[in-house]
Amino acid sequence: MTRLLIENGYFVTMDDDQPKFQGWMAVEDERIAALGEGEAPEEEKSLASAKLDGKGYLFMPGLVNTHGHAAMSLLRGLADDLALQDWLQNHMWPTEARYTGDDVYWGSALAAAEMIKSGTTTFVDMYDHMHRVAEVVERSGMRASLTRGVIGLCPEDVQKAKLADAIQFAKDWHGAANGRVSVMISPHAPYTCPPDYILKFVEAAHDLDLPMHTHMSETIAEVEQNVRDYGYRPVEHLDRLGMFGRPTLVAHAVHLNDDEIALLAERGVAVSHNPVSNLKLASGVARVPDLLKAGVTVSLGTDSAASNNNLDLFQEISMAALLHKGVSGDPTVVPAAEALRMGTLYGARSIGLEGVTGQLKAGLKADFIALNVDRPHFVPRTDYVSHLAYAARGSDVAHVWVDGKQLLKDGKLLTLDEEKIKAEAEACFRRLRG
Ligand SMILES: CSC[C@H]1O[C@@H](n2cnc3c(O)ncnc32)[C@H](O)[C@@H]1O
Ligand SMILES: [Zn+2]
C-alpha cells in the first residue's frame, strides 16, 4: 500500500461541495483517499508513505476527451482546409486503407503522448486495429473508452467480418488493464452504415450490454442525404433503429432542430462537442447552449489531429466557452465553470464513468493533473476557474496521474518513450505517404 500526501496545493475539484480551495489531498494506491482545505491534519501526515509539495501547482481532475481517432495523428497536416466529405473520401480513407497494425500502434502512441502532456487522462477512441490502441492504453497507463468504428460501405461478407471484429474486441478488452479500458459499439455514421447493418450493432450492444458511439448530424449535407435516402433526419433515423434505447454518445450533433434536442434529452443521449474540428471542416456550430438547457450531457472532444490539428483539450474548453458567446451574442452562455465541467465531469458522465473519474472526490480513481500556475498568465491569482477556462493551455500541465500512478513528471513522460514514438511515427507517415 502507498499513500501519497500532496500539501500546499490549490485544488479545483469539479465537485459541487467545496469546488476550490488551498489545501491537501491524500492518494492511497489507485484512489483519492481524502482531501481538504488548509494544512493537512496530523493523522494524514503520519499515514503518508510519500509527500509532494504542491506549492505553485493547481490540482484538478484529469481531462476527458470524448471523441477522437488517435492513430490519425500520423495524418496531421496531410490535408487541411477541406470540407468533410472531400477530406474523408479523397484524403483520409485512401491513406487509412494502407494502415497496418503498427501504424495504428505508433499513431496512437503519438496521440497518447500528446494527450498526457496536455492533461488528458481519459479518452474515447474510434478506429480499426483497436487491439493495438488498447496496447497503447495498457502501456501508457491512461484510461480509455475504445470502440472499433465500422464503415459498412462494403460487401456483406466484409460487413460480417467487421461486426465480428468489433464484438471480439469488446469481449477481449472490456474491463481490461485494471478496469482502465472500457468498450463501446460503433457503426461509424448513418451515412456509412445501411439501416439493417446498424440494427446488428444495436443488437450486439444489447447482447454485450455496452454503450454505443457514432458520428451524427455533423454537416447539413449529411442531414439532407439521410432524409433523401431513408426519409428521416439522422436523430429520428437512429432512434427508430433502437440505438437510443442504449446508453449512447453521439459525436458532433451540429445540425439539430428543437424536436431533435428534446428527443436526445428524453433518451439520455450524450453529445461530444468538437468545436475546433467543426470549425476547421466548416461543418457548423453545434447548439450547445440549447442542448445544455434541455438537460443533455455535453462533453468535449478533439476529433483527430488530422482535423484539429492538436489534441489539447484545454483549447476545446476555451473554444467552447468563447464560440457560443460569439454566435449567440449572449456572453452569459457556457460560462467558465460549465466549460470546465464539459471537459471533466460531463466527459466522465457521457461514457458511464461518473463516480469513477472526472472529479477530485474521496473514493474516486486518482486521475488528476497538476498545472504549473507560477506563470504570468495565471496572475493575479483571483479566480482559477476563470484562468483554467480562458487562460490555461495544455503546455501548463506539469504532472499527471491515472489510477494513482504518475504518468508525467515535470513535463516528462514516465511510461512512454517520447523520442522513440516521434521517430517511429515519422517513419510510419513517410511509408504511408509512399
Ligand atoms: C472507421 S474508424 C473511424 C473513421 O472515422 C473517420 N473520421 C475522422 N474524423 C471524422 C469526422 O469528423 N467525421 C466522420 N468521420 C471521421 C476516420 O477517417 C476513420 O475512417
Ligand atoms: Zn470523428
Automatic annotation (TrEMBL):
InterPro entries: Amidohydro-rel, Deaminase_MtaD/DadD, Metal-dep_hydrolase_composite, Metal_Hydrolase, MTA/SAH_deaminase. This is 5-methylthioadenosine/S-adenosylhomocysteine deaminase. Signal peptide: none annotated. It comes from Cohnella suwonensis. Residues 60-406 form the Amidohydrolase-related domain. Catalyzes the deamination of 5-methylthioadenosine and S-adenosyl-L-homocysteine into 5-methylthioinosine and S-inosyl-L-homocysteine, respectively. Is also able to deaminate adenosine. Belongs to the metallo-dependent hydrolases superfamily. MTA/SAH deaminase family. Binds 1 zinc ion per subunit.
